Amino acid sequence: MKSSSDTLQSITQEINRCQRCSLYKTATHAVPGEGNPHAQIVFIGEAPGFYEDQQGLPFVGRSGKLLDLCLEEIGLQRSDVWIGNVLKHRPPQNRDPLPQEISACKPFLDRQLKLIQPKFVVTLGRFAMEKFISGVYISRVHGQPRFITWESNEFFLFPLYHPAAALRNPHIKKDFYQDFKRLRHYLDNPSEITPTTKPNTTQDNNTQNKDDQEKQMSLL
Ligand code: URA
Description:
Elements: H1 8-16, H2 23-26, E1 34-35, E2 41-45, H3 50-55, H4 62-73, E3 82-85, H5 99-116, E4 120-124, H6 126-129, H7 138-141, E5 146-150, E6 153-160, H8 163-168, H9 170-188, H10 207-215
Parallel strand pairs: 2-3, 2-4, 4-6
Antiparallel strand pairs: 1-3, 5-6
The chain binds uracil.
Uracil is lined by residues 45-49, 52, 58-59, 61, 63, 85, 218-219.
């Protein structure tokens, strides 16, 4: 696993021939990630779904359409950002990633992040968030940026619900839209991010529900 001469292209090639876990056996294409190699903002999802697996591209199904819409709402296009996933191959039937799959795939995203050096890492859903922070519920921390040092990279982490959860639950969808507005605000005003930045919405009674929604498959 080299590092100094690493490039996004060479990582993509490695991912395309990866056999580190068994997912490659059932996948059609690997989905290494795509976008602006100099992006200030990186979005990280869970794993490719059906359409991503067919096309080898991240977020091209229903979740991707919602993501595109929200990006557009805050004045961003795909070409402004980089988009990747925790897992690079689709889990069969869109099941949750297994711990051994996450650890087998981890070095790829680590190396991609090291090369891109984004200022903001926006995680989509629980599995992406748990790459960087543990012991928190997404229903409690979504939309709250925090500055983190992670494997010698420094960036603002911005956890969001997964767009698939937003598509399933109108309450989550509302939060998802609001969180994108908050993202726009903090992109413009990063100096306002403090270790205790809290959302301006009050938590509702549906938090357990929302976490349960997140536990379901997110690969739409
Ligand atoms: N869901 C994800 O988490 N990633 C994708 O690329 C598509 C759907």
